[in-house]
Every structure is written in structure tokens, then in C-alpha cells.
Amino acid sequence: MSRLSIVANVHARPGQADLVKAELKKLVPLTRAEKGCINYDLHQDNSDPAHFVLYENWESREIWEAHKGGAHLREYMEATSGKIDKYDFIDLTYLD
After folding, report:
1. What is the per-residue pLDDT across 28-40, written as a single tens digit (0 to 9) for each?
2. What are phi and psi of 63, to 5 degrees?
3. Is there a contact between 38 and 3 (Cβ–Cβ < 8 Å)?
4. Which of 6, 51, 67, 94 sits at a 20 to 30 Å CA gap from 27?
5. What is the span of the domain harbouring residue 51?
6. Rounded distance, CA 59 to CA 3, Å?
7. What is the CATH number of the domain that holds 47?
8. Of 41, 33, 32, 35, which Cα lies nearest the Cα of 6?
């Protein structure tokens, strides 16, 4: 199994950045505590406060796939339903 890196871009809808930020921040300690999570770092774009970036490293794709089905992610999705303009993920294989 090879290590997996994910760069997730989250763009909040106008007026929703504070709510989305608060919900994303709730995910950080819960996700970092998951088995196989190497790091899970949340960032906010300095020029666009509605744009958030998660930089994640996982021991394997299988572990990340299991993470995506976790209860705390379902709760996040419910809390931010209709508040996100778009998501995009960059899925990377760690080389060195």
C-alpha cells in the first residue's frame, strides 16, 4: 500500500464562510485521531476567506476511503448542506 495525499478545496457560498470554517475546524481533531491519518491540516486562503484548503496524508487509500464514511464527516455534510459553493479534490500518490 502506498501513502495517499489529498488536497481538498472547499469554497463556501457567499455569507457562509464563518459557518463552514467552524464546521471544518470541528473535523480537525476528530480526523487527526483516526488510525492511519498522518496529518490533516486546515488552511484559509488569505485573499479569499471563503476558500478553505485541507492538506491530508493517509497511510493508504483504503484508510482514507474508510475515513470518508465516518460519522463526523456525515455530521459535517449535514451542517454545511447548501452552504458550500464547490468542492474539488486533488488525489496524489506520495513519491518522496
Report:
1. 999 999 999 999 9
2. -65, -40
3. yes
4. 94
5. 4-93
6. 5
7. 3.30.70.100
8. 41
H or E segment to which residue 74 belongs:
helix 71-79
Q: Are strands 51-58 and 4-12 parallel, antiparallel or unpaired?
A: antiparallel
Per-chain mean pLDDT for the chain: 95
CA distance 91 to 88: 10
The amino acid sitting at 85 is D
| CB 84 within 8 Å of CB 14 | no
**Is pLDDT of 1 > 80?**
no
One-letter amino acid of 86: K
pLDDT tens, 38-62? Answer: 999 999 999 999 999 999 999 999 9
Give the DSSP letter of residue 82.
T
Task: Take residue 45 and report the three cell numbers written for it.
Answer: 486562503
